[in-house]
Structures are given as C-alpha cells and as structure tokens.
Amino acid sequence: DPLPADTYEVVIDEIKDKERPVFENPSETETVITFTFLVSEDGEWKDRKLWKDASPVMWPGVKSGNPSTLYQIYSAITGKNPSEEECAAVDIAAINELEGQTLRLVVGQKMNQRGELVNKVNGFLPIKNKVNEPHIPTVPVGEAEEEITPDEIPF
Fewest CB atoms within 10 Å of the CB: 85, 102, 130, 148? Predict the structure, then answer.
C-alpha cells in the first residue's frame, strides 16, 4: 500500500547510479542517480522506503526554469542555495556525503501506467527539528572551502 499523501521525515538510505531509457527515446540510455529514502519518524510508516531518480546535474534554475532534483535535495539538507558557480564545484564525493542525511519529503499519490496507486515524491524540505547534529558536506567555494555548522542554519 502507498503512504498517505503527507510530509515525512526521511533519511537518505542509499545513493546509486543506474542506467534507464531516455524519455521519448527509449533506444538510448542515460545515467541517473537513484536516491532511496527511509521514513525515519516514529509511527506506522517508520522504515518504509521511497525512491526518487535525479539527473546528475546540480542546476539552481533560472528565471523560468526549475532547480534540478539534485539541487533541491542538496539544498534541503545543507540549508544552502548554491549559485551556478558553486553548483559546478559540487562533485560526486559531495553528493555521496548526502547518504545518511535527514530531510523531509513531500509525498503524493498517483496512478502508474498499470493503473496502480503509487507514491510520488513531489518536493524536498529541511528537517524541522535537528534531533542529532549531522555532518554537513563541505562545498568548495572558489579557492577556499566553506563549511556551515548546524548552528548557522536559520531554521
């Protein structure tokens, strides 16, 4: 059974690459990052898994464009909104450091192609209350590196 549409606190349980057919051109494949999330809040849904594929692109979005999924996940965890230049500096190691981090997912429901009701991850939010002090990945900024401590995050 799918989770009810709601917002859930989750931990990133696993991050891995996979190949999938390109949308509207299934003869070609593309590499995507699959995030496996585990519901971490106590209750009926604890330890349930949710998945979201993300293009391996950190893009902050522009006037009419939306930020990439990877950017939204990264921002929800770090509390930062990196510029285009900072996005270019986020490497695979920084992405892998997101594993084990906590955030909130906005989860909805939809019918899949087989007519089954399934969950869909619609958004990413920072956690409300920091129960533990997670390591926040360091993002190189120009020549120097800057690290934000949990005390500097405004929420």
Answer: 85
Identify the three-state secondary structure at position 93: helix
- Residue 18 contacts residue 34 (beta carbons within 8 Å): yes
Which amino acid makes up residue 6? D
Do 54 and 68 contact (CB within 8 A), yes or no? yes
Assign 136 to helix, strand or coil: coil
> Rounded to 10 degrees, what is the CA torsion of 61, 66, 67, 70?
-140
Q: What is the pLDDT along the chain (155 residues), one digit of tens a residue?
A: 899 999 999 999 999 999 988 888 889 999 999 999 999 999 999 999 999 999 999 999 877 789 999 999 999 999 889 998 999 999 989 999 999 999 999 999 999 999 999 999 999 999 986 544 445 555 555 554 555 566 666 55
Per the CB < 8 A criterion, the answer to whether 93 and 140 are in contact is: no
